[in-house]
Amino acid sequence: MQSTRLTLMCHARTVAQKLGRFPTDEPLELSGQSAMDLPRARFKGTPRLLCGPELRARQTAGLFGSGVEVVPALRDCDFGRWTGARIDDLRKSEPDMLQAWLNDPDSAPHGGESVVQLGERVAAWLTTLEATPGHIVAITHPFVIRAALTQALQATAFNRIDVEPLSAIELRFNGCWRLRLIGTDLEEIQ
């Protein structure tokens, strides 16, 4: 039985991340020159390349290859009315709601998606991959990667996982999901 190999990669940095804002559908914070300086991943074989529908995910995926499949399940968490808001501003204007959201994964005071709902969406997507052997590379968002890790680890450590821009983790399914951390040198991911 051939196993499923899933490499999850976070999109490149955006201005919203730099400014501590909840994301919008913003582009990458890359000039033409810095885009050229990004390490090009060379994957062994020809992996299936997927990405979330947001501009930042599609732009990042485009840096790593063509023939990208946009997958709605890889979309970022819906932050509702907090979309575009600065986290520091919310700490001042809505501290109780922000704290409730951070402490309670069922909470969605912003009117969008709760962490539990995001986890259910990502878990359903992971289930569809269990019968898909081969290597899949998915360019997505920190929250989606956290949810996938939480599902794979069956843990409640969602808010204790940091996902840096352009970081990547790999999940393999061969009877059960296993986490494989890969180095920061993206020159060759095997």
Automatic annotation (TrEMBL):
Superkingdom field: Bacteria
Record InterPro entries: His_Pase_superF_clade-1, His_PPase_superfam, PGM_Phosphatase
Q: What is the name listed in the Swiss-Prot or TrEMBL entry for this protein? A: Phosphoglycerate mutase
| Signal peptide boundaries | none
Molecular function via GO: phosphatase activity
